[in-house]
Amino acid sequence: MQAGVHDERELFxxxxxxxxxxxxxxxxxxVAYGLPVLTADYDIWLHFDDVETLNAALEALDMxxxxxxxxxxRMGRYVIENGDHIDVMLxxxxxxxxxxxxxxxxxxxxxxxxQLGEGVTLRVPALDDLIQTKRWSARDKDxxxxxxxxxxxxxxx
Length: 157
Fold this sequence. Notes:
Elements: H1 8-18, E1 22-25, H2 26-32, E2 42-46, H3 51-59, E3 64-65, H4 69-75, E4 77-81, E5 85-90, E6 93-95, E7 101-103, H5 104-110, E8 112-117, E9 120-124, H6 127-134, H7 140-156
Helix pairs in contact: 1-3, 6-7
């Protein structure tokens, strides 16, 4: 599979049109907030009930999931790819390492729509929620991302 064959606006326009409840998380969300980080893939958090809706929308871009919807729900994650790599997380909620519960419906309700291009927006978690998602693991890059997000939050206060 070739890397990065889809225009990012085309990808997120398809997501937006289908109506699936999706928030962009991970480093691409940091990039959307204007932070200087690099990443090669997309990480999204998808509502547990919207797997088929998202898969159908991205099928139109010749992108395919690596698991059936039922298997993806059992595993809590799956990958969609064909040129672009999208890691999809499926969970109604997930606890941080500190034990704080991060609930999808709450994050989605507070999410921020950012303009990606003419007529195309994407949803990212509100800054405080994005910080919580970065507290799901303690990888070195997550700790570095947390420092950047905390600095950004301090600038906005």
